[in-house]
Structure formats: structure tokens, C-alpha cells
């Protein structure tokens, strides 16, 4: 198999990168399943966020230690732009809290699908934070995707309320986290940014959990095993995503991000007997369509440069 060179000069191994990114999506969904399971056993969203970040530091540390760029740069842990990293970590803390709370209250696939609107918020934030120019086509694509989000949330539908707004809040904050990472110096290794974000998220989640009543005793060794698995699933998912994005251009991976919608639906149906088909469609199709329209436009503009 031939290996093409990317525009950054790194080897462009698209196929293995796509497979690794798909593994990341499955790991994220498995993490979500464990969160939903533990939510029914009396563990709060703040507690679960704290545990997830604590055990997620293990894969984050492995990713940094494996980074050639970090070792070549003297293995420094300090970031010149540390305020951005701190704010990014705190945004992820709140995003996780909202998303985990939603997972425990609404259908898993519904929460996951709404969270995919983060790509629309990335477009929105890129204008003031990155100074990007967004034309009418991409704004139209964003409106298509947002219309899909509204359909999935279902204003006026029985059961509509704060619970379906929570994953939208999470998506907005995850979108900010994505854009803010692009504000960091280009020479900073991605795993170092990830470790800072994970550390700040762990600290923020701990403070949040204590402020909301502290930690419930872990009921059994089985629950402890699930808690550890949750952290490892989430941390490994981030690690896989970092590896994938370092192997190929982001545009090669973006179309496969929506693979998480059918997998979330399938896993929610298999493990929790949830099948919110009527709630997800046609809204989910519009979310995917809006995201792919933005991707198509960005790739076309890149070819014209």
C-alpha cells in the first residue's frame, strides 16, 4: 500500500487513520453506555465526569509519552498559552456534565445525535476566534444542520424540556474546545494539549462534584470496574482520535464522524431497549447533510488555494 504525503509533510495514511477514528467513535459510544448504566445505580453526572477524567489521564499520559515531537522538544510540560488550555479544560468539564446528565435522562441515541451539532458550533466560533470568513454557502449548510437539531429535540413534542437542551449545551462547549485547540501554538504537540485539557477537566469535575454534594460510596467491585472501564474507554477514544488526526488530513476523517449516530442507536437498542426512530429522523439526516455540506465546501476551497 503506498503512502501519500499530506500537505503538512507528514505521511498520509488515510485508511488506517479512518479505521482508528472509527474505533474512537465506538469507544466513545461504549463510554456513553457505561455512563447510562452507572446513572441508574445512583452515581451523579458530576461524579461520573470526575471519574472519567481521572482514569482518562492514563491514556492521555501514554499519548504524550509516545509523542516524538514532545520528546524532541525537550519533554516540556509547560504551555506558553496556559490560560487557553485552562479555559478549554473547564469548558470540557461543563460539557461533560451536561452530556452525562442528558445520557441518564433521555434516550442514548437522541443525546448522541444532538451532540453532533458541535461541528456547527465550530463553524460559528471560527469567525470571532480564528478570524475565518464564512460565506453564504456554509452558513446555509449550518442552518440545514441546525434545523435537523431542532427536529431531533422536538419543541412542542411531549417530553420536550431541559433534558434535550443539555446535549445542545454540551455540543456548543465541545465546539469551543475544538476551536480553542486551533488557537494554540502550532509547535505544541497535540498530546500535550490533550493532557492539559484532561487535567483541567479532572480538577474542574472534582470541584463540581464536591459542590453538588460530594461522592456517593462505590457500591461494589463491579461498579468500580465499570467506572475504570468508563475512564479508559473515554481516554482511549481521545487517544485514538489524536493518533488518527496525526496520520492523515482532517478532511479525510470528517465524513466518518457521523458513524456514531447509527452505532449509538444500535447500542442503545441492544442494551437499553431504546429505539427512538421517530425522534431521530429526519432530523439526524439533516444534521449529517449540514456537516457534509460544510466539509465539501472546505475541501473545495482548499483545492482552489
List the topology elements.
Layout lengths: L3 E2 L5 E2 L1 H26 L5 H21 L2 H5 L9 H22 L4 H8 L2 H13 L5 H18 L8 H20 L8 H22 L9 H27 L2 H4 L6 H13 L4 H4 L2 H22 L1
Antiparallel strand pairs: 1-2
Helix pairs in contact: 1-10, 1-12, 2-4, 2-9, 2-10, 4-8, 4-9, 5-8, 5-12, 6-8, 7-14
Description:
By secondary structure, the protein is mostly helical. Helices cover 74% and strands 1% of the residues. The chain is built from 14 helices and two strands. The protein has helices spanning 14-39, 45-65, 68-72, 82-103, 108-115, 118-130, 136-153, 162-181, 190-211, 221-247, 250-253, 260-272, 277-280, 283-304, and strands at residues 4-5, 11-12. The protein has a two-stranded antiparallel sheet with strand order 1-2. Strand 1 and strand 2 form a beta hairpin. Helix 2 crosses helix 10, helix 4 runs antiparallel to helix 8 and helix 5 packs parallel to helix 8. It is globular, with a radius of gyration of 19 Å.
Distance between the termini: 29 Å
Strands in their spatial order, largest beta sheet: 1-2
Taken in chain order, the helices and strands follow as EEHHHHHHHHHHHHHH
Strand content: under 5%
Coarse shape: globular
> Percentage of helical residues?
over 70%
Return the structural class: mainly alpha
Q: Rg to the nearest angstrom?
A: 19 Å
Rounded mean pLDDT score: 82
Largest sheet: 2 strands, antiparallel
Number of helices: 14
Poorly predicted runs are 1-11
For the secondary structure, the number of strands is 2
